[in-house]
């Protein structure tokens, strides 16, 4: 069965501050998608949140970039914004950059990850969703999942994965893309993936069959808006089992601390902490950045699940280490490398402050 899985997300208002989402906002999104399912537009849906980001997970048969599906997501975010405004939630409608919908939510603020595929006999899916970080945060985990045999033993011992995977990498500033193959071109690939502020993995394909394996949201909110609004808080869909990595191979990169950009005012480096959905409420210094993982089996497009995959004591130790890294970095206060490097600070609110002081600079 040909199927499209769309994950479309936006921050339409935080409760309290930017730390979490209000139940009434979530309820409104559920009502909208329930109605759309009743009308036959969606096969199934699941609404969840990661911190202050509302996540619409939808299955349908309208393909990627469908105007109908994007309009449904946009209208849902608008109605949820109205709920957020009535409760005077913080930053109500913050990610909705346009006044009206115009065909596709891309470039209008929300983040999107969509993939079309034919559902396998057993279709296992993992959806990662993050808060208080930028698109590009998936580079390191996706590299480990699909190219690092120390992470994914299947690359070595499973014959259906042994030929490797193809990465589509986007230059988010110059709007260019390149495809590179693992394992042959991993040294070339790492030139770019190691700079996640500029290059982000958009998609990964099974090399032999060409089948889609993973897709992520690469939208940069600050580049779209031309000013700092909030972080991208990206999402990523990964297909699992069979010719794709096992669930445990997909989660394994998150068992060690990855340092990402984001956290307080989107201006700091901090540890990405894998948590259960109920723990995705970044409060300490508005963080540290969080990632949740929702696992599903698909049954003719029905979303069987989710299983809250990081709700597992096996991730307690990385959470503990993330807290130690957080303490360590916090002691540096406003100094780099806790604070982002100067060129990245251009996409925050700091230039406004620097502008005021510009006239006081004298030649040396
Ligand atoms: C980071 C984030 C928060 C806010 C901070 C200030 O992505 O959302 O750290 O930047 O709470 O928020 P405002 O400017 O809305 O008061
Ligand atoms: Mg927010
Ligand atoms: Mg957020």
Question: How would you describe this protein?
Answer:
- The protein has 364 residues and is α+β, with helices and mostly antiparallel strands.
- It has two domains: 1-118, Alpha-Beta Plaits; 119-345, no CATH class.
- Helix content is 26%, strand content 28%.
- It has ten helices and 15 strands.
- Strands 5, 6, 7, 8, 9, 10, 13, 14 and 15 form a nine-stranded mixed β-sheet that branches.
- Helix 1 packs antiparallel against helix 2 (67-86).
- The radius of gyration is 20 Å and the shape is globular.
- It binds fructose -6-phosphate and magnesium ion (MG) (2 copies).
- Fructose -6-phosphate binds at residues 17-18, 91, 132, 230-231, 262, 264-266, 286.
- One magnesium ion binds next to loops.
Quick rundown:
With about 375 residues, the chain is an alpha+beta fold.
Radius of gyration, CA atoms, in whole angstroms? 20 Å
Shape: globular
Topology as a string of helices (H) and strands (E): EHEEHEEHHEEHEEHEHEEEEEHHH
Structural class: alpha+beta
Q: Ligands bound here?
A: fructose -6-phosphate, magnesium ion
Beta-strand residue fraction: 25-35%
Helical percent range? 25-40%
Mean pLDDT: 97
Segments where pLDDT lies below 50 for 5+ residues?
Answer: none
Q: Please tell me the total number of domains.
A: 2
> How many distinct helices?
10
Write down how many β-strands occur, each being a DSSP E stretch of 2 or more residues.
Answer: 15
Give keywords:
binds magnesium ion; binds fructose -6-phosphate; 364 residues; single chain; 2 domains; globular; alpha+beta; 4-stranded antiparallel sheet
């Amino acid at each position: 069965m040909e199927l499209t899985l769309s994950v479309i997300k936006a921050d339409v208002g935080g409760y309290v501050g930017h730390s979490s989402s209000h139940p009434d906002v979530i309820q409104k999104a559920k009502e909208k998608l329930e109605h759309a399912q009743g009308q036959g537009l969606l096969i199934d849906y699941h609404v969840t949140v990661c911190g202050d980001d509302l996540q619409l997970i939808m299955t349908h048969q309208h393909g990627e970039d469908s105007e109908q599906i994007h309009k449904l997501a946009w209208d849902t975010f608008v109605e949820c914004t109205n709920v957020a405004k009535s409760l005077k939630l913080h930053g109500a409608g913050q990610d909705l950059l346009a006044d009206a919908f115009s065909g596709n939510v891309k470039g209008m603020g929300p983040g999107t990850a969509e993939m079309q595929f034919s559902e396998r006999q057993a279709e296992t899916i993992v959806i990662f969703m993050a808060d208080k970080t930028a698109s590009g945060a998936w580079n390191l985990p996706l590299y480990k999942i699909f190219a690092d045999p120390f992470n994914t033993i299947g690359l070595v011992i499973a014959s259906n994965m042994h030929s490797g995977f193809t990465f589509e990498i986007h230059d988010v500033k110059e709007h260019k893309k390149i495809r590179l193959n693992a394992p042959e071109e991993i040294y070339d690939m790492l030139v770019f993936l190691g700079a996640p502020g500029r290059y982000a993995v958009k998609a990964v394909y099974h090399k032999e069959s060409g089948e889609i394996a993973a897709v992520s949201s690469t939208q940069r909110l600050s580049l779209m808006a031309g000013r700092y609004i909030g972080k991208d808080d990206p999402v990523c869909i990964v297909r699992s089992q069979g010719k794709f990595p096992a669930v445990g191979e997909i989660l394994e990169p998150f068992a060690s601390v990855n340092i990402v950009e984001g956290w307080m005012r989107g201006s700091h480096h901090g540890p990405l902490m894998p948590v259960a959905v109920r723990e995705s409420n970044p409060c300490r210094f508005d963080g540290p950045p969080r990632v949740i993982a929702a696992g599903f089996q698909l049954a003719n497009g029905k979303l069987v699940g989710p299983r809250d995959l990081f709700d597992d004591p096996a991730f307690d130790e990385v959470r503990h280490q993330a807290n130690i890294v957080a303490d360590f970095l916090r002691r540096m206060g406003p100094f780099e490398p806790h604070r982002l490097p100067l060129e990245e600070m251009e996409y925050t609110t700091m230039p406004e402050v620097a502008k005021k002081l510009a006239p006081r600079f004298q030649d040396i």
